[in-house]
């Protein structure tokens, strides 16, 4: 058989012959294979094995690898599966090792697939660009014992205070550590890197030749961690190379599950410099045991060298250690939701791609006292607005019944003013995810804020989750005991019926607190931070357009994030409304920004429509008036008025918002070429993590 059986993405291959090995499933090289001219870390050797693997079986991959070229120290080499599924690729790491120029290194690991969802390739890759990869004969064979399902990887409990990181001070070189798509080495007294002294001890690790920010040092910790436990992390980091002043360094936990899903928990990040060692510390926990758990360092820009010293991870407590508190389930739809008050830690709850725990008295988080009962949940390490606390309530709700959700929330972290927090339903329907907003409020660091709302599902098309989320990345979320209960009356349908039968009178502004003289009362921040500027603290010296106040929305990471108000109870179908507001931006790199005034229309069948009702181009040097009109042909379940449009990072200033009903004949859309209405469905709520 010729070498056509093997593909080599993004590189050239030199090899003599490929034959079958008797009794083996795999084809192997009878000579060394050399991958040259590699220009990406993922360039290497590949073979399609789709037709030769079966679901449920465990396979062992075994070979020897070596590197050649511009390598100082050791270089990362890995075997992994690439699975082409509908919508993209999934990756399953088999094993990663540190290879050298001096000797052959065994690369051996196992994999098992529960299903075969698409084409499956085995890849050998990993060294930085320019480094040649040598691969000896490869053997892949099935084993009689399915390790992934036999339960032999039972985690032994770690005593509180024990460091679960092996070779934490690098006294054993890079033993137990792996370089991830980069090169690296351990320095000793004889060869300190650029004269940099260790923070402690006599050694530290240097990772270099990094071409992506996610490349760095890692250690697998699967057999030394367990779900439901809280772990403290600390390390000392430093950077070197083309650094202007400082660079971000981050510690992350990667959790890989048998269903090909991968989750990431950001432990913490720190700004590191060339001048000093910086302490990177934080906590993490998870509720479901993964197939593989790996802790790693990442973050600096490509080309920056990362120095790491003294890595410590200790188990500090179990989230279910308080046995003296009796948990009373609450009534919901005739069944019960257990642990609504977090007395059993985070049991039954799920942290959505973030960290969190339930603090116990007297060691409450930042000294914050509970508002009800003895417990609350702290959600940490959030790197996107949608990350937070989640609960599957599918078995506890019934179609056609109205439920009330009630809790108190608070935020902590880099917040200037107030921050957005929301409760919503996420429904996994056959055609995709649907979202139902329950309530959104503005939360602060100073006090607990009531978060209460209702929801009604006309049908149960799939799994139903309740989510608590919303603050910008980096802001921690505190959640008090959550009450969910059914009510006898269908309040939402009654409201809709009352609005149709009794339209409001014309001539008045339906926007409550339109000039912000009551702060942000009646307004909500959507996935961003914000505050009201007054005479004593005008933002960057900007004077109001009129009156004495205006709203500032900032820390926006998406263009749709901004300020909103629920006007459901104030509008009626078949009536025409006129809108006006004065807007301004700050911090824009470009000369001008386009801003929309829009309505989000949410219907009982999970459909969501966006209607743009006004549009204007705004600059930083002056206030600009936005105007428009709208008319609703039918009455939705909820009508939210909001502003969106500036690019992420742009600060939006809003003053004097007016919406009035107009009884005279008005050509709707006269101030615009056309009113734009879209079925936006999952607008702004696509939970996506890309990390490869």
Automatic annotation (TrEMBL):
The CBM-cenC domain sits at: 35-127, 163-302, 336-472, 508-648
Answer whether the UniProt record assigns the keyword Methyltransferase to this protein: no
A GO molecular-function term, please? hydrolase activity, hydrolyzing O-glycosyl compounds
What keywords are assigned to this protein? Hydrolase
- UniProt-listed GO biological process terms: carbohydrate metabolic process
The UniProt entry, under InterPro entries, shows: CenC_carb-bd, Galactose-bd-like_sf, GH10
Instruction: Please give the superkingdom of this protein's source.
Output: Eukaryota
Q: Which protein is depicted?
A: CBM-cenC domain-containing protein
Organism of provenance: Nelumbo nucifera
């Amino acid at each position: 058989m010729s070498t056509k059986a093997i593909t080599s993405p993004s590189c050239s291959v030199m090899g003599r012959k490929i034959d079958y090995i008797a009794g083996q499933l795999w084809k192997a090289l009878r000579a060394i294979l050399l991958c040259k001219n590699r220009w990406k870390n993922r360039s290497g050797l590949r073979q399609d094995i789709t037709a030769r693997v079966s679901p449920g079986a465990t396979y062992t991959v075994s070979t020897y690898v070596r590197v050649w070229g511009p390598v100082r120290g050791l270089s990362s080499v890995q075997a992994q599966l690439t699975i082409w599924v509908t919508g993209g690729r999934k990756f399953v790491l088999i094993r990663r090792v540190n290879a050298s120029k001096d000797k052959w290194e065994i690369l051996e690991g196992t994999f098992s697939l529960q299903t075969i969802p698409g084409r499956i390739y085995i890849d050998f890759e990993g060294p930085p660009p320019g480094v040649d990869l040598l691969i000896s004969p490869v053997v892949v064979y099935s084993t009689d014992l399915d390790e992934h399902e036999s339960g032999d990887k039972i985690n032994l409990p770690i005593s509180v205070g024990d460091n679960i990181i092996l070779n934490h001070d690098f006294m054993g070189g890079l033993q137990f550590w792996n370089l991830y798509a980069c090169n690296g080495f351990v320095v000793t007294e004889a060869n300190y890197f650029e004269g940099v002294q260790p923070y402690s001890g006599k050694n530290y690790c240097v990772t270099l030749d990094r071409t992506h920010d996610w490349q760095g040092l890692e250690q697998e910790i699967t057999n030394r961690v367990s779900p439901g436990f809280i772990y403290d992390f600390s390390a000392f980091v430093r950077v070197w190379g083309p650094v202007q002043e400082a660079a971000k360094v981050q510690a992350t936990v990667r959790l890989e599950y048998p269903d090909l899903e991968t989750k990431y928990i950001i432990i913490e990040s720190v700004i590191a410099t060339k001048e000093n060692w910086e302490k990177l510390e934080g906590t993490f926990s998870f509720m479901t045991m993964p197939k593989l758990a790996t802790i790693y360092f990442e973050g600096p820009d490509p080309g920056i060298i990362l120095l790491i010293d003294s890595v410590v991870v200790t188990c500090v407590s179990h989230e279910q250690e308080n046995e003296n508190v009796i948990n009373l389930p609450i009534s919901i739809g005739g069944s019960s939701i257990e642990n609504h008050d977090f007395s059993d830690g985070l049991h039954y709850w799920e942290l959505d791609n973030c960290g969190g725990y339930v603090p116990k008295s007297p060691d409450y988080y930042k000294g914050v006292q509970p508002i009800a009962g003895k417990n609350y949940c702290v959600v940490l390490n959030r790197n996107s607005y949608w990350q937070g606390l989640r609960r599957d309530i599918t078995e506890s709700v019934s179609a056609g019944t109205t439920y009330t959700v009630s809790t108190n929330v608070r935020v902590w972290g880099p917040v200037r003013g107030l921050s957005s927090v929301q409760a919503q339903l996420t429904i996994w329907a056959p055609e995709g995810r649907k979202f139902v907003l329950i309530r959104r409020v503005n939360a602060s660091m100073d006090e607990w804020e009531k978060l209460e709302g209702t929801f009604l599902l006309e049908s149960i098309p799939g799994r139903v989750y309740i989510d608590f989320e919303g603050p910008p990345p980096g802001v921690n979320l505190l959640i008090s005991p959550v009450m969910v209960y059914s009510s006898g009356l269908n309040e939402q349908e009654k409201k809709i019926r009352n609005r149709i039968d009794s339209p409001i009178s014309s001539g008045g502004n339906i926007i409550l607190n339109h000039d912000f003289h009551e702060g942000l009362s009646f307004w909500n921040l959507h996935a961003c931070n914000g505050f009201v500027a007054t005479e004593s603290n005008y933002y960057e010296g900007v004077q109001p357009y009129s009156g004495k106040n205006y709203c500032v929305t900032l820390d926006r990471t998406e263009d749709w994030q901004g300020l909103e108000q629920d006007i459901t109870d104030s509008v009626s179908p078949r009536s025409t409304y006129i809108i006006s507001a004065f807007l301004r931006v700050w911090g824009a790199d470009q000369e001008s920004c386009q801003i929309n005034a829009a309505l989000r229309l949410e219907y009982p069948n999970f459909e969501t429509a966006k209607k743009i009702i006004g549009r204007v181009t705004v600059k930083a040097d002056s206030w600009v008036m936005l105007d428009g009109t709208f008319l609703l042909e039918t009455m939705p379940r909820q009508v939210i008025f909001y502003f969106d449009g500036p690019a992420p990072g742009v600060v939006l200033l809003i003053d004097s918002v007016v919406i009035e009903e107009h009884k005279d004949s008005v050509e709707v859309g006269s101030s615009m070429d056309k009113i734009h209405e879209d079925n936006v469905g999952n607008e702004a709520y696509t939970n996506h993590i890309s990390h490869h």
